[in-house]
Amino acid sequence: MSPAIKTPTPRPGGRGGWPRRIAVVCLAVALVLIGAAGVARYAVLLPAVRDLIEARSDGLRVGPLGKLRIEGLSGDLWRDARANRLTLRDSKGVWLEATNVKVTWDYTQLLRRQFAAEEINVDTLKLLRRPVLAARRPSRGLPVSVRIGRAHTRLLLEPAFSSQRGVYDVDLTLDLVRKGAKAGKLRANSVMHVGDYAAADISMSRAGRFQLRANAEEVKGGALAGSLGLPADLPFQLSARADGILSEGKFNVRATSGASFPLVSEGAWTPKGGQASGRLDLTASTLTASLAARFGPEAKFQVSGIKSTGEDYSLEGQLLTEAVTVQVQGLGNPGKLKLAPGGLRVEAQAPSLSRILTGPALGGARITGVITGEAVAWQFAGA
Known about the structure:
Elements: H1 18-42, H2 47-57, E1 60-61, E2 67-76, E3 80-90, E4 93-105, E5 114-127, E6 145-157, H3 159-162, E7 166-176, E8 182-190, E9 197-204, E10 210-218, H4 223-227, E11 236-245, E12 248-257, E13 260-270, E14 273-281, H5 289-295, E15 298-307, E16 313-320, E17 325-333, E18 338-350, H6 353-357, E19 365-372, E20 379-382
């Protein structure tokens, strides 16, 4: 009878131990990740963590608008975030203040590079005065898509901002897709003057089709007109329309203040070319009063383009004011804001440099040159 064959027991360091070790390591990593996710998910419920977030966000720059400050964070910051007060401040101090802010959102959408808020409510949003805007930095586009199902606030425009106090109930929906479609609707109804309002409806598809509708009306004037620097005691109306695709469309804009027309402009374009013209009354608004003193009471402009070779158009433009005349001519692609290698020839004439520069007595001047390049890096050479 032959002896029984014994199967050797794997030693701890032998081959049989590797699958077990790998399983243990994977389990440990999974537990660490779950723990980290749990800490990140629920740590924000702790007052100390919310205080730390407030401290770290203090002074965060919001583009040219100023620096942010958040006070009184509460709630579940990952789903139902709240703040007692939010402000933006510039070099002169606080110019925007929001109180009792509540944001209901889905933090998991951030994994898809999307900020998705079901609802945003702000008890009061105050514009205390006009901001001092900082220098703009080159835009890198939206880091995430933005979807806001509904936003509501009571908007207060203070006299330092709009020359007359205004109170409005504002509702907003917004859908901005990174490098894609865009849509938004806004409606602001006056609380102090029933019937006065401002509304905008904007949409742009991935295919490039767009539509704009914007209207505002104040029967006896008000804070909306005042916020644009127009007289707040005169009837005010604004209408803007735009329809089409990037290669073909039309637009028109018209603003009325009392019996005057601060802005009138219209244009249209097709694959074969297009034109636009307009007039801006520089004396109508306090925001352009300094320009009126230097250049005259109004500015007229006209631009046109006719399809040339390849993607280029033969471009012509003219700007006319009492103090300066500017004419441009050349080849380029307006849609891409790019000029042909030959550039755009520019000629400008001014009867008196003293008026434009508001400096010592100087006579007339004339400058000619060529602009080359594209929007990110224009270059001018001339004499």
